[in-house]
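Dear support,

I submitted the protein below through the web form. The confirmation email said the job was done, but the results page showed an empty box. After a refresh the structure appeared. I'm attaching both so you can tell me whether what I see now is the final result or a partial one.
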Amino acid sequence: MNNQIDYVSEINRLKKEKNAVILAHYYQRSEVQDIADYLGDSLALSRIAAETDADIIVFCGVHFMAETAKILSPDKMVLLPVKEAGCPMAEMVTDLRLKKYKEENPDVKVVCYVNSTAKVKALSDVCVTSSNSEKVISHYKGEKLLYVPDKNLGTYLKEKFELDMDVWKGFCCIHNDVTNEEVLKAKKMHPNAQFIVHPECQLDIVKMADYVGSTKGLLEYVKNSDCQEFIVGTEKGIIHQMELSCPGKKFYLLTENLACYDMKLTTLRDVYYALLNEETKIEVEESIRHKALKSLEKMFEYTDR
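What the results page shows now:
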């Protein structure tokens, strides 16, 4: 019987009944992207979560994203359709290890990639996303910094801005595995294509790119570029939006390995049952939420200048 449910219609019905809004990251399955009220990268979705007047936020993403929504909107119900959807990189820095580092380095400011837990954000001075990291971190030139948890984006920023910054050793399992050989092979196969890449890739890969940017940045770049072909060096989910936004242009995924298991866990069925049963709620302890909020608000302060 369940396989006869029209999930799209039922999701839309429940949204209206419950005053719910669906947020989805660009790396979600195409059909999940298509039913979202708002689609975006981490920065865009965090802003929407902070500003929505909906009673329920259904976050189609991974745990740290839904947690961030709850930090910004404590009075809203935040549902993560698949509570097991996590981010390995976010788990590569723990609050206990970060606290120990801070005790040993009391003068260091902690810059925290938003791909992190609420407990880690609570110990940080400011958050960044891949969209705004350059703008935010430019305010900290001349200070002693620690960047957590992504070593690749951190190293990219450290070199670009000549920062006095320690970099944690975390990484995105998907982006970190991209190889020079894969890039060279793709460029040989598609000689007229530009190579665009996410800064979560390793620095030698980033230096081979025609454009480096967040998922939103990559999408805007292909929209505005005169080039007609692109080799895409980030998670495959973004290609759905690129193809919708740029009919006639061609997009080649650098490697089929660019697929995030956790981002692909959420299905329409999961979204439906999350709305129906309201059982996959995300909660953040108030003392942690309050401290984590400060690091996010500092990010918005610098971004909005």
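Response: this is the final, complete result; the empty box was a page-load delay. The longest strand covers residues 20-25.
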